[in-house]
Design goal:
The protein has two domains: 33 residues; 100 residues, no CATH class. The protein is 52% helix and 21% strand. The chain contains four helices and five strands, in the order H-E-H-H-H-E-E-E-E.
Length: 152
């Protein structure tokens, strides 16, 4: 009896096909979840002037002020598109808030604010993980906008 006719061979073929099926199913599920997240999440991307502790601390202060303001103006929003629309209409306010935080902390950095679709690496927030990919986001660049610490 040849090996390909044995029960052991048939078992390995079935096992291999099952593993391929599991891989394809898992990949499909991961893509579906990732697409669902990118379609429904609007992220905040703040880039500090540099990696120095002072600039990173300033970035976090800007983040906190921006989040507080955005939560107020978008509290009645039902979807991402309405959030983007409201934030787009308040870019001047966002600029002014960022500029005030920077000045209050003794700095004079330039500011660039954009709303668009930007790449994010995988990011962990406690028990929540957002996969890498392109997300619609509010991006605030402070000063030279050192990109070695990308996401807040």
């Amino acid at each position: 009896m040849k090996f390909y006719q044995t029960k052991l061979f048939k078992f390995f073929v079935i096992l291999l096909l099952f593993c391929v099926y599991l891989f394809i199913t898992a990949k499909s599920y991961a893509n579906s979840v990732s697409t669902n997240l990118t379609d429904n999440i609007f992220r905040l991307h703040i880039i500090a002037n540099s990696d120095s502790d002072q600039d990173q601390e300033l970035k976090l202060k800007v983040r906190d002020s921006i989040i507080e303001y955005v939560e107020k103006i978008t509290s009645d929003c039902q979807n991402k598109d309405s959030v983007i629309s409201i934030i787009s209409n308040h870019k001047t306010d966002l600029y002014n808030i960022t500029n005030q935080v920077i000045k209050d902390n003794g700095y004079e950095y330039s500011i660039n604010i954009e709303i668009g679709n930007f790449y994010f690496p995988t990011k962990y927030y406690g028990n929540i993980s957002l996969p890498s990919g392109y997300y619609d986001a509010l991006k605030i660049e402070i000063g030279k906008a050192n990109r070695s610490k990308l996401v807040v």
